[in-house]
Amino acid sequence: MLSRSDLADVPITPGDVNRAVEDAYLALASGDSDNPRKLSVAHPDGWSVAYAMLGRDGRRRVVAMKTSYKFDPAHDRSTKRYYTTITLYDDTTGMPIAMMDCARVGALRTPAVSALLVRETIRSGARSVLLIGTGTQGRNALPHLLAANPQLNRLMVYGTHPDGLKAVYEHLAVHHPHLELETVTDPYEAARSADVVLATAGPGTKVAVETDDLAPGSVAVLVGYGLAPSALSGADRVVATSAEQMALTGTDLVDADGRLRPVDAELPQILGRRAIGRNSDEDRIFVYNSGLVLTDIAVAHALAERAIAEGRGTEVPLWD
Predict the structure, then answer these.
(1) Buried/exposed 10-40: b ≥16 CB within 10 Å, e otherwise
(2) How far apart are CA 151 and CA 57, in angstroms?
(3) Angle made by CA atoms 102, 319, 57, in degrees to the nearest 5
(4) Are 117 and 267 in contact (CB under 8 A)?
(5) In angstroms, what CA-CA distances link 50 with 4, 99, 136, 225, 266?
(6) Model pLDDT for residues 111-167, shown as the tens digit of each residue
(7) Element of type H or E holding 189
(8) Are 274 and 280 in contact (CB under 8 A)?
(9) HSE on the CB side for 113, CA within 13 Å?
(10) How many CB atoms are closer than 10 A to CB 8?
(11) Would the CA dihedral through 303, 108, 295, 122 be positive or negative?
(12) What's 207-251 look like in SS3?
């Protein structure tokens, strides 16, 4: 059993996380792994929602089940409860590896996916990035982005929470102590000069960047909130981690006629060189980052191996 505190400071670099996530996508694209549709159940009054996700990583020979439960009756941050776990099994020996808290897994996996999406869609000569939001995803976004896109050297951030802004600066400094980060007060003006826009804000944000606010040739990545539906409908090209998941979870992005812009290419196919990320340096590209359990498995397995090697966690004789 690996708890949240057991995993909190297990050493792993953004580059290691990016590589683990990319390997998971390549295995899926080549047919070595399986990622079936998730199951969900929700309280009819919206009090809670739960998900179950099963996956098989054929290259690591690991099978895993991830569960997610959110209790949020009042839609209030102070009363919301959210728990995720993942259980890993060794598909070579048939033995269980670990049951572990999944909070850090998600915090690392999502920015790694964004970093790969940007790497595959960014225009030549791109240098600037605007980060919108300073929550968990915002704090982890820049180190992973720069690990995959080291040419980005003009960094901007917009946020409304002083503690969140401070955390973004501190987290960046751990990995890139010599890089400068500029706090902007007008995200719309900043977006007009940015080659990459990473929208990681929470649902309470008032920012909604429109397609006309995005520079020609830019990439706009939606992780949380911060982009308006027109950023999708007005894009020259749309890339997603999964078209199926975007159709299920991207319903707030429909156009005035209630239609959701179709996806032109998915990340696994782009990484496997069966599709392209960008046609032209002038294209505005909208990117939808949604999770696949295979990426959770890859990061969870990497963390579990490191944690167990360091003697962390509690060995439980559950099946003895």
Answers:
(1) bebebbbbbbbbbbbbbbbbeeebebeebee
(2) 32
(3) 45
(4) yes
(5) 20, 18, 21, 21, 26
(6) 999 999 999 999 999 999 999 999 989 999 999 999 999 999 999 999 999 999 999
(7) helix 187-191
(8) no
(9) 32
(10) 10
(11) negative
(12) CCECHHHCCCCCEEEECCECECHHHHHCCCEEEECCHHHHHHHCH
Strands 219-222 and 285-288, how do they pair?
parallel
Alpha-carbon span 191 to 208, nearest angstrom: 11
Which of 223, 226, 164, 203 is CA-nearest to residue 77? 203
- What pLDDT, in 10s, does the model give residues 176-196? 999 999 999 999 999 999 999
Q: What is this structure's pTM?
A: 0.93
Among candidate residues 294, 288, 314, the one with its CA nearest the CA of residue 118: 288
Q: Pseudo-torsion of CA 8, 34, 137, 12, nearest 10°?
A: 40
Whose tokens are 């982890």? That residue is 140
5 Cβ contact partners less than 8 Å away, ≥ 6 residues apart: none
The whole-number pLDDT of residue 15 equals: 96
Helix (H, G, I), strand (E, B) or coil at 296: helix
pLDDT of residue 284: 97
Phi and psi dihedrals of 239, rounded to 5? -125, 140
Burial 167-176 (b: 16+ CB within 10 A, else e): bbeebbeeeb
Model confidence at 170, pLDDT cuts 50, 70, 90, reads very high
Output the CA torsion 122→123→126→132 (10° steps).
-40
Query: Nearest 10 degrees: CA dihedral of 222, 226, 228, 231?
Result: -40
Sorted by sequence, the CB contacts under 8 Å of residue 158 that are 6+ apart come out as 130, 131, 132, 133, 183, 184, 185, 187, 190, 207
Q: Enumerate residues 6+ apart whose C-beta is below 8 A from 62.
A: 56, 88, 89, 90, 91, 97, 297, 301
* Secondary structure of residue 128 in the 3-state scheme: strand
Q: Which helix (H) or strand (E) holds 23?
A: helix 14-29
Rg of the chain on CA atoms, in Å: 19
Percent of the chain whose pLDDT exceeds 70: 100
